[in-house]
Amino acid sequence: MSGLLGRGGAAFPLGTKLRTVHEARTDTVVVANGEEGEPASIKDRWLLRNRPHLVLDGLRLAAAVAGASRAYVYVSDQQAATSVAAALGELPPDAFGATAVSVVTVDPGYVAGEETAAVRRINGGPAKPTDKPPRPFEEGVHGLPTMVSNVETLANLPFIQAHGGQAFRSVGTPASPGTFLATVTAAGRPTALYEIPYGAAFSDLLEVYGLSPDAVTGALMGGYFAGLVNTDILHTTLDHESVRRLGSGLGCGAISLLTDECPLAVAASVLAYFDRENAGQCGSCFNGTAAMSAVTSALRDGAATEEDVTRLERWSVVLRGRGACGTLDGATNIAASLLRQFPQAVQRHLADDCDTCRAHKFDALRPYEVEGLTR
């Protein structure tokens, strides 16, 4: 077995997804999810724009294992959609056998890439999450068992088919086999995309990126979802088990490096983003993201109290798991990790005594957004 884990954020084993859908013993559907709603990530867009045949070959293999009658490539990036459509036109008519393949486009949005939102959009509805159960593997596109998998995950299948699971496991770690695509950003520096083996040292990534460890004060991990980590990140390796031990996660592989920014101001900007981007369907998320955003913004501006911080700490616990999708969990991760990893920054702001924010207040609508790729 290859042990291939999902690259979309949750690191769920692909084999389990495929087996579950296959064992439904009925008509099935597979979806290549390339709706990269995470502003700090560019890996899926890069693959779809530059290696569309690799993704399509992985989708073909997944469809064959699942016994799918239909396959979809789900994207929001128009250049990616054009690239995939052109690649499909280059394939022979029988490339997917009896499986019909379609490209479905959607307006970009943080929640649009959630698996039930993808199913809902393909079914003709809005790209907003639905309550679970049922999950897509139980009832998805057109009511059929549906496997939704990230495009990077699928792009690993051709190698595994050609060389076998043991060859795939020859790099990485036992619990996190293979390689992954890491989007690395830092304020005022070019964005970079690297393919690196799981288990690589964080310090080695910094060396390749060309940034001294002395300049790094922490990181925002997994895009916005996995929260903030302090300088402990400098001494870890980049695999799921090691980053989880820090109370964080690799998620989609997007790593935003903190250098001169105040971590509390970064948290306030990310929570303001979650407040704007939530689907507006769940009261707990709609109100919870707004409340946590308000407290961190007040903290950033030196206008919060100890009671506000106590409320923020409570919300970061009791609101977890209460939304239909991961948006609220991402927001609670930001709040909890800020309080846990950067308590000194919180205390400085309670005293309205942050020299960093006094000199330059970090306030980005889409923090560490990737607009282009230079290397």
TrEMBL record:
Span of domain NADH-ubiquinone oxidoreductase 51kDa subunit iron-sulphur binding: 264-309
Coiled coil (UniProt feature): none
Source organism, top-level taxon: Bacteria
MF terms (GO), sorted A to Z: 4 iron, 4 sulfur cluster binding; metal ion binding
InterPro entries in the record: Nuo51_FMN-bd, Nuo51_FMN-bd_sf, Nuop51_4Fe4S-bd, Nuop51_4Fe4S-bd_sf
The keyword Repeat is assigned to this record: no
Pfam family, one: Complex1_51K
SMART domains: NADH_4Fe-4S
Sorted UniProt keywords: 4Fe-4S, Iron, Iron-sulfur, Metal-binding
Family: Belongs to the complex I 51 kDa subunit family.
Protein name: Respiratory-chain NADH dehydrogenase domain-containing protein
